Each structure stands twice: as C-alpha cells, then as structure tokens.
C-alpha cells in the first residue's frame, strides 16, 4: 500500500468496508436459506455449517465496526462517504441480528426434527422465501445505491407480516384441536417470528440505503407535533 | 452560541448528545415500566401515554443519529469522543427497539385485558422487574462510563433467560391442560419474549459502554480460528 496516493488508499478503504458488508450479508443470507432448508426438508446435516457461518458473522460484526471507526477517525469522511460509513455501521448491527435469528431457528429446528412432523409447515416456507428475497434485495440495493429497489423491498414487509398473522392463527387452531401438537406448534410460531424479524432487519437495511443515497431519514414518518 | 470558543461549543455538542440519549433512555424505561404495570394491574388507562411516548422515542431516534453525524462530519472527534459518539449511534438503535418491544407488549396487553385473566401472570412481573433494572443500570453505566456496573448488568441477562424458559414451560403446561387458555398463554409467551429482547438490548448497551470506556470490543468472544 506504501507509495500509493492517499486518495486511492481512502477509496480502497471504503471499498474494503463495502466488501466486508457484502461478505457478511452473503453469510446472513446463506444461514437463513440453509436453516429453512433443513427445517423444510427435515435434513439436520445442513445445520453444522450454519453454526460455523455464525462464527464468521460474529467476527465480521467486530471487523466492520473497527474498519468504519478507523476510517472516520483517520480520514474524516464527509457527505455521501460519511453516510455510507454510517449506513455500514447500522447495517452491520442488522446483519448480526439476522445471524442470531437464524441460530434461533436452528435451535427450534433441532427440536422439531426430533419428533414426527406437524402436517405441512403451513406458510412457513413461503414466508421464508419472501424474507430471504427481501434480504437479498436489501443487500443489492446497498451495493448499487438503488433507492427504487430499497423502496419496493420495504413494501414487501407487509406480505411477511400478513403471513405471520395467518400462520399464528392456523397454529392456534392446531393446538386447540389437539393439545399434543402444542410444543411443535409453539416452535413453528417462534420460527415464524424469527422470519418476521429477519424481514424487519431487511427493511431497516433498505431504510439506511435510502438515507445513504438521498441523505433523508425515512424512518418514523409520523412525529408528535 | 455565537462568539463562544469553538472548543466550548464542541463540548456542548457532545453534552447535547448525552442528554438526548438519556431522554430517550428514560422514555424507553418509562414505556416498559408503564406497559407492564398496565398488564399486571389490568389497567388499560396507562396505555395511551405509552403510545405517545413511542412517538417521542421515534423522533429522538432520528434526532440522535443526526446530531451524531453532524458532530462527526463537522468536528472530527477522535479517541474517546469518537467512541462515545459511535456508542450513542449504536445505543440509539437499541433504545428504539426497546420502544418497539414495549409497543408489542402493549398490543398483547390490549388483547389480554379483553378477557378474564389467566390465573397469576407466573414470573412475568419478576422478569419485567429484572429487565427494567438492567435497562436503568445500562443507562447509568453509560452516563457515568461505569464499566463495572456494565459488566454486572450483562451478567444478569442469564437470570432473564432462565425466567423466560421457566415461563415458557409453565405456559405450555397450562395450554396442554386446557386448550381454552391457548390464546392468552400465547400472548403471555410473546410478552415474555419481548421482555427477553429488552434485556438483550440493555446488554448490548452495556457492551457499547465497555467499548466506549476501554476501547475494546467485548462482543463475540469466541472467534473462528
């Protein structure tokens, strides 16, 4: 790196942060996909890799914050660059939480795989699919600074919320009809809440992308007067 | 403000951020306390104020990020000051989520108040008490840069997790014994998960305080080699 012009080094540092965020996002996405696959296909062999991905996510969580702080401290980014670095710090938190939720789903999957399945998994595979797509699109929106994609992704959060409510009511029916289904129905309800939270984090990421590109904060549109 | 020395203005800006964080933390704490009180005392009259506090929390969420970005962009803080501002950005996210969880508890409380109570609330009041104390201590640790208090607060997260597991098992028993209790038992399980998440956010705040004071990152101690 020695001998390079400072501005080049600065650009490389920003590029480095973008790459770390993408690597972490890719891992969070893969964890979610793989844990849902394990649940749907009842294949526990997919789970150890999910755990090892979480260790990588946790390491990146620390690395990204460090890289962001370093560039703020040493290079004093301003304008778009500062918003980019701030967005990276915020998105970092969301991605780490997505990893946590994938691990929560993993724990529930372990207990669900230990017993005969509860009929179909209702709309959980569909909910997982929408949440995963939202996460993928949120990361694409971040890489490309694509406000339009970010807005369309945020709009899909309502679909996930609706699916969560439907799943909840359907599982309550199962439990009411047959008390022996309660433990596994509970596990599935908690899985659906993890998926809902993953979609929420994808929504957060999109809001940070919009802030990064436009410099306007779209969170909480209704304020007290 | 005109005519003041720049360094004074800078110190005031940092102080302003601290005050905003404390105001928001106080609101998050009050929301949690009041919504649990409404649930335990079955007093819905406490709930409208919780909603109005959330609007203030949402406004502060945006204001704090703005104030932090402004000071980073214009004053280029370094060392402790930069870690303080970064901690404020992170803590801001946690406090906003605590407000969201209080609102989730509020929604469940509304449906629980509409039906006769499910015997006692088991250990939910106790769990709420520990979570609230953790939040209060986390904010005190932030104000005073108190690493020792932060560490003791983090240690209490295990108590909350244990209570959550106990509550879960006990409510599963209720549901299994009498299917008519399922909807309210489910609501209580979700309330206990919100309280668990509030304690998690208090833990996060403590980790940022330790990072702020010591400059070391205590999150994720186990890394892949």
CATH T-level topology of chain A = Methane Monooxygenase Hydroxylase, Chain G, domain 1
Largest interface: A-B, 40 and 40 residues
User: Compute the gyration radius of chain A: what is it?
Assistant: 20 Å
**CATH architecture tag of chain A:** Up-down Bundle
**Percent of sequence in beta strands of chain A:** under 5%
The CATH class assignment of chain A is Mainly Alpha
Global outline of chain A: elongated
Order of helices and strands of chain A: HHHHHHH
Relevant CATH superfamily of chain A: Phosphate transport system protein phou homolog 2, domain 2
Q: CA-to-CA gap between the ends of chain A?
A: 52 Å
Please tally the helical runs of chain A, counting DSSP H or I stretches of 4 or more residues: 7
The tally of domains of chain A stands at 1
Identify the notable features of this structure and list them briefly.
225 residues; Methane Monooxygenase Hydroxylase, Chain G, domain 1; homodimer
Account of the protein in words:
2 copies of one chain form a homodimer. The first copy, chain A, has one domain (8-214): Phosphate transport system protein phou homolog 2, domain 2 (Methane Monooxygenase Hydroxylase, Chain G, domain 1). Helix content of chain A is 82%, strand content 0%. The first copy, chain A, has helices spanning 6-41, 47-75, 79-113, 124-144, 147-155, 157-177, 182-214. Chain A is elongated. The N and C termini of chain A lie far apart (52 Å). The mean pLDDT of chain A is 90.
